[in-house]
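Extended Data, panel c. Modelled sequence:
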Amino acid sequence: MKKIVISIVIIALFCFPYAYSAIKTDFAQASMIGYIPLIGVSIILSVIGTTLKCTPAVIVGNIASLIVSYYFVSHYSGGDRWDGYFKPFDATITLYIISILNIIPQLIIVLLVKRRMRRS
């Protein structure tokens, strides 16, 4: 029961549109600082999920985050203004690229955590 509750909490925390927030900050402030919470929170949640053996929740959470971010990008992107900003891509393709690139540090950290757990 405890593992189910932890999995639900991890998925719920992943459901915040981190990628959308990063893209919006990048567009509005011309600053890459919005990507720090995207990477930081996802790594922290991945470490927690791996340590507590809730890896499927991390996978589902990443997918949920992508879906929620896609919803916001497609509905609240401010029309065609964003498409010219993220050249040569539009905002949606940029979202997909960011989501895929966000998985790389998570995988590295998860592999390191699993290696450390095996040694213990």
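The chain has one domain: 2-113. This feature is highlighted in the accompanying rendering.
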